[in-house]
Write a structure and sequence with these properties.
Blueprint (H helix, E strand, L loop, with lengths): L6 H10 L2 H10 L6 H13 L5 H8 L6 H12 L14 E11 L2 E11 L1 H18 L6 H16 L10 H9 L1 H6 L4 H9 L2
Antiparallel strand pairs: 1-2
Amino acid sequence: MSSGIDKEMVREHYQRMSDKDLVRELTNDATGLTLEAQEIVKDEVKRRKLDSNIIRGVEAQQKNYTIQEIDKYCELIQKLPCPKTGSTSEKLNATLTAEVMSFILFTNYKKKIVVGSPDVLDKANNDALTKSAILGWWGFPWGIIRTIEAININTKNKRTNRLGTPNDYLRSFVFSNIGQIETYKDDKEKLLEIISRD
């Protein structure tokens, strides 16, 4: 049964990409590819003689996962050295930081997931908390609202930074990057690159 996709158009789309762009798209944005598109992608990876693990990354993005399966990927991440300190003495985890800076009529509100050792996560939350407490209030009306929200987020999230098991932020990070993690699960340097991105 055909899915109605124009195979030649899909093939040409991937053939026009540079190797770097193709690898990035296949390891990051291949969720929901039809079976026909997956076959075209596999052929293109083989034709270019790219790392065959990229195909595993594409397939990983098509699956539904249980918490236990996601936790297996989390274990790979938790065993890595901290991307900030290089320390391997504690398991890595993740946190969500929220940071607010306001300038009268303009308020900048930024959230991001940080992966690292417990001390690094605490520092990231504390830094975002301090910056928000000092610079967040000065915008009207959103500065006040967003600053209170950021203070609550950073304070609450510090409670899960020292868990020995994966917290929900690490699970979320892993799930969002599952294609890359599956592709590079045997390459410690690449995994460190993935968790180090800001």
